[in-house]
Amino acid sequence: MTQAEFLAKIDNQLRPFILLINPWLATLTYSYGRKLFLKLLSSEIPKTKFEPPSELHRKFWDIQFQLPLFNAAGMFKNAEGYFTVASQGAGAYLAGTVTYRKRKGNFKNGILHPFLPYHSSGSASNWMGLPNEGFDIIAKRLSKIEKVKGCPVGISLSFSPDAEMNTAIKEMLEGMEMFEKANVDFIELNESCPNVKHAEHENQEKNLWLRMEQISEKFLAKRKRNLPVIVKFSNDTTSEQIPNLIDNLINFGFDGINFGNTSTEYPNYLEDIDRYDIKNFQYFTNTYKGGLSGKILKQKSLDLCTTAVNQVKNKNFRKEFHIIRTGGVETIDDIKASNSNSILINQWFTGYFSAFSMYGHKLYEKMFSSSEITEKKYYIQIKKIT
Ligand SMILES: Cc1cc2nc3c(=O)[nH]c(=O)nc-3n(C[C@H](O)[C@H](O)[C@H](O)COP(=O)(O)O)c2cc1C
After folding, report:
1. Crossing angle of helices 23-43/3-21, nearest 10°?
2. How far is the CA of 293 from the centre of ligand 1 (A)?
3. Is 120 in contact with 277 (CB distance < 8 Å)?
4. With left for phi above 0 and alpha for psi between -120 and 50, is residue 328 left, alpha or beta?
5. What are φ and ψ of residue 155, in 5° steps?
């Protein structure tokens, strides 16, 4: 058993008791414990590499993904741990979210980057504030990765939340070129972080499309190689917003959409929180606010992505546009549910850690080893939309 596997197992046993002590102490423990765990995790390379069988591979945007599941943004903010997840068999690796300038992230009540799991509810809250080392350093780090076949590298980028709009756009364009040169395989624009104070330009929908238009004209239209760019929105998006979002993204030349990021609709999810977690949930959402993740988002992410898939199916356009599901993905049944709704690829964050505490580095192998899922019927062929 590796150190990360040992820590995850011990934590899984102790967690229900630690969480009952006191909400502030529990937040302190898990905010720092999470970072210690991630440091260990990303320094470990599993001895036996899992090579997913070909029935599980997905190919789209001319990129090969060895599995229909990989980590969501925020897990490896500073581009650590590529070989850890590539050897585990992950379908891809996503670094970031990264901003133009280095950011320290949020600090309150003696706690840096507050995070609190809701163990009995399979969910969590976080209020990180996009801590990261900045475009320059991360691009250099990613450029040195020797990629494993079937595990492409993505980068999640955010406009500087505190910069004035023209500056934020200029910086983003510079960053996208940096990552294009750094040989990443795809870019995810994070338009959905609930944990930063946004400058005026970020708050208005009109300005969202002004930003996207600039990215479209000055980057998407001038890409020097195959480099898909997708946009990640919140799981708080309503299904009524989807047609407009998809139409605009397609018109601007984007390649996909991700639903989505954490939720700030606390009252809506209160009834899904187990009674053992309620006190901690009230403490966190009143004190730090932050974003909700995990099981409670399962249905919403599935519904939004299904609506998006149907919207795209009805379109008649000459390029691929793909829907990525993130939110509450934790078991093979979630992957099956995505498949049967033609959602071809998924990301996970909260569920990854629960799976790791059960299976350690073999998590992808165990999850996909069920004979049912390796049957081809779950894997629809990707056809180019023409
Ligand atoms: C601690 C933590 C940090 C996160 N950081 C980011 C981030 O930097 N960028 C981003 O787009 N999403 C971030 N997220 C959101 C996740 O990528 C994901 O969208 C969300 O947690 C829902 O997925 P899940 O239910 O599988 O956790 C973060 C989530 C957590 C729990």
Report:
1. 170
2. 7
3. yes
4. left
5. -130, 135
State the pLDDT at residue 306. 96
What is the DSSP track for 15-57? HHHHHHH-HHHHHHHHHHHHHHHHHHHHH---SS-----GGG-
Q: Is 187 in the pocket of ligand 1 (CB under 6 A)?
A: no
pLDDT tens column, 259-278: 999 999 999 999 999 999 99
| Ligand 1 lined by 261 (C-beta under 6 Å) | yes
d(CA 87, CA 49): 5
Domain 3-378, what fold? TIM Barrel (3.20.20)
Please report, for residues 66, 185, 186, 219, the alpha-carbon distance to residue 225 in angstroms, rounded to integers and kept in the order given. 22, 10, 11, 11
d(CA 211, CA 162): 15
Is the shortest distance between the CB of 73 and ligand 1 below 6 Å? yes
Does 74 sit in the ligand 1 pocket, CB within 6 Å?
Answer: yes
**pLDDT single digits (tens) 69-125:** 999 999 999 999 999 999 999 999 999 999 999 999 999 999 999 999 999 999 999
Its pTM surpasses 0.85? yes
72 lines ligand 1 (CB under 6 A): yes
- For tokens 């509450």, name the residue: 328
The mean pLDDT of 178-201, rounded to a whole number, is 80
Amino acid occupying residue 206:
K
